[in-house]
Amino acid sequence: MNPKSLRLYELNCIIKSSFNLFRGVAMPIQANKVVSVNYTLKDSEGVIIDSTANSPPFAYISGSEQILSKLEEEVSGMIIDSRKNIKLTASEAYGDYDEKDVQQAKRDQFPEDFNLEVGMRYVANSPDGKHMPFVITEISDNVITIDFNHPLAGKNLEFEVELVDIRDATAEEMNHGHVHGPDGLHH
Ligand SMILES: [Zn+2]
Predict the structure, then answer these.
(1) Residue 184 sits in a domain of what CATH number?
(2) Which of these, 103, 180, 172, lies nearest to 134 by C-alpha position?
(3) What is the pTM assigned to this prediction?
(4) How confident is the model at residue 127 (pLDDT cuts 50, 70, 90)?
(5) I need a surface site. Which of 77, 144, 158, 180 has the fewest CB within 10 A?
(6) Cα-to-centroid distance, 47 and ligand 1 (Å)
(7) Closest by alpha carbon to 120, among 105, 129, 162, 128?
(8) Ligand 1 midpoint to CA 61 (Å)
(9) Domain count, the chain
(10) How many angstroms separate the alpha carbon of residue 70 from the centre of ligand 1?
(11) How do residues 25-71 score in pLDDT, each as one tens digit?
């Protein structure tokens, strides 16, 4: 269970470089590049789960585990301005659904001012400091059923990806561990 969100960051300031060296050349994307993509994510029934259709491209730093590794591997073989349909099995994407990640908690384990409602999403902090998102799936008198599975666990996914741009990550971006500029963080 290692949930990774595609959209980890908000958008930001303008540091646009004109790094076009890879335009038209098919070669694997090296580490420490800022890779910008447009994408539409669908489940196996064709239902759209997420899309950049109404937003700027999504950008990530290559080689730093910011997106699903199988997805990154597939994008790495693309050339700029090309499109690719990338199908991931559940285990290549957000993992198989695991019944063991469904747990029962007692009402008094939650803070008193918690709004306990089926469908509410919260994040628990594990003893080693990890953030563990969960959703409340059932509420009975004193037992709250919570599910730590990623919302997309058990789903085969299809990404339609357009590779928009590749440029070197700046030293500052490498320091911060995220992308700055129009497709990244503004700060
Ligand atoms: Zn930063």
Answers:
(1) 3.10.50.40
(2) 103
(3) 0.73
(4) confident
(5) 77
(6) 34
(7) 105
(8) 12
(9) 2
(10) 26
(11) 446 789 999 999 999 999 999 999 999 999 999 999 999 989 999 99
Residue 69 alpha carbon to ligand 1 centre in Å: 22
Structural domain including 91 reads: 1-98+151-187
CA of 139 to the centre of ligand 1 (A): 40
Q: What is the DSSP string of 50-75?
A: EE-TTSPPEEEETTSS-S-HHHHHHH
Q: Are 30 and 62 in contact (CB under 8 A)?
A: yes
| In the block, residue with structure tokens 């908000």 | 10
Rounded to the nearest whole angstrom, what is the distance from the C-alpha of residue 46 to the centroid of ligand 1?
35
What type of residue sits at position 180?
Answer: H
- Beta bridge mates, 147: 102, 135
Give the Å distance between the CA of 105 and the centre of ligand 1. 37
CA of residue 183 to ligand 1 center, whole Å: 12
67 and 19 in one domain? yes
CA 91 to the chain's CA centroid: 15
What proportion of the chain, given as a percentage, has pLDDT over 70?
A: 85
Any idea how long the chain is?
187
Q: According to the per-residue pLDDT averaged within each range, which of 78-82, 103-107, 123-127 is highest?
A: 78-82
pLDDT of residue 6 exceeding 50? no
